[in-house]
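Try this one yourself first.
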């Protein structure tokens, strides 16, 4: 199976890039001096209490300020920040969402809200906020490679393959020797169905860095998927495994090549090892295919069902299970 980002929780690196210029210590917003004198007095008391570390007392003063000036994004932002500091994340979320309703361009509130969403395991909401932040940063710094890569990963995690592809194409246009960009672009293109372009980009990645095991493995896997150049695929897969012998994805690729060569016993040996290392529905499906080809139908059904449990969206497995169950009847 090819190497790529997994669609899991928001990575620390993305959060760091998104928040680099919005650290809380440097983003206390301007006091709402012009809005309401009494509210301003409470706000000043709250800010002083914050500095003294009396967070709960500060919250009380911010709440009083908010009663007198309910439309102040500044007050709601600071309330949200303090609720986050005492780990009252639901209240933090409520206040920060209100701050953004009042002031959508407030990137400090957006970043803090993304962190709160992540802490609440609301990953899709967090992804959306990080994306909006980085898109805004990209407007003023369009050639920042860190922002481009982070945006590409965020788009991928949100299944927006087209936008992710555009980011990597832009990255290549400004960094034409970045071998990782060609690799990631190739894998994204394969997910969009453009296998020829995918292979061409992975070959370019290997041209720039012939010893990259991720690129070696990915090209080997795509050859195996197409049932072409299997000897070259075998050579590439073994090269990758020399650098990382216990990589479950690399072992899966080798097992899948053996399967395409009709070497079922070798395929089964490698794929059974791969599933011990890496819980992945692709590997489970491959192993089920081998079991089925060897006539081990109960084992095939069991492992395919496990694959569906891990990834219920894999419709290809449902068809295999149905076909095998009909065959058994």
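Now uncover the answer:
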């Amino acid at each position: 199976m090819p190497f790529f980002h997994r669609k899991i929780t928001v990575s620390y690196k993305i959060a760091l890039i998104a928040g680099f210029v919005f650290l809380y210590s440097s983003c206390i917003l301007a006091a709402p001096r012009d809005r309401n004198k009494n509210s301003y007095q409470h706000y000043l008391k709250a800010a002083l209490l914050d500095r003294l570390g009396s967070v709960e007392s500060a919250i009380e003063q911010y709440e009083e300020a908010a009663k007198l000036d309910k439309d102040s994004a500044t007050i709601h932002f600071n309330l949200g920040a303090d609720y986050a500091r005492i780990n009252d994340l639901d209240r933090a979320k409520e206040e920060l969402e209100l701050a953004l309703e009042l002031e959508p361009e407030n990137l400090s509130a957006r970043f803090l809200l993304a962190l709160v969403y992540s802490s609440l395991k609301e990953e899709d909401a967090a992804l959306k906020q990080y994306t909006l932040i980085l898109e805004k940063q990209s407007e003023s710094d369009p050639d920042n490679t860190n922002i481009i890569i982070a945006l590409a990963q965020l788009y991928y995690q949100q299944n927006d393959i087209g936008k992710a592809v555009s980011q990597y194409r832009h990255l290549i246009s400004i960094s034409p020797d970045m071998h990782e960009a060609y690799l990631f672009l190739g894998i994204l293109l394969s997910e969009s169905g453009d296998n020829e372009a995918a292979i061409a980009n992975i070959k370019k990645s290997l041209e720039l860095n012939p010893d990259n095991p991720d690129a070696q493995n990915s090209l080997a896997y795509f050859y195996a998927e197409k049932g072409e150049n299997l000897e070259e695929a075998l050579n590439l897969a073994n090269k990758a495994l020399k650098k990382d012998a216990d990589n479950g994805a690399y072992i899966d690729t080798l097992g899948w090549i053996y399967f395409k060569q009709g070497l079922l016993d070798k395929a089964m040996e490698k794929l059974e090892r791969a599933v011990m290392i890496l819980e992945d529905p692709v590997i489970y499906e491959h192993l089920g295919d081998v079991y089925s080809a060897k006539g081990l139908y109960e084992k095939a059904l069991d492992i395919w069902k496990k694959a569906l449990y891990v990834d219920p969206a894999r419709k290809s497995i449902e068809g295999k299970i149905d076909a095998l169950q009909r065959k058994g009847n």
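Discussion: The chain has 18 helices and no strands. The CA atoms of residues 14 and 150 lie 6 Å apart.
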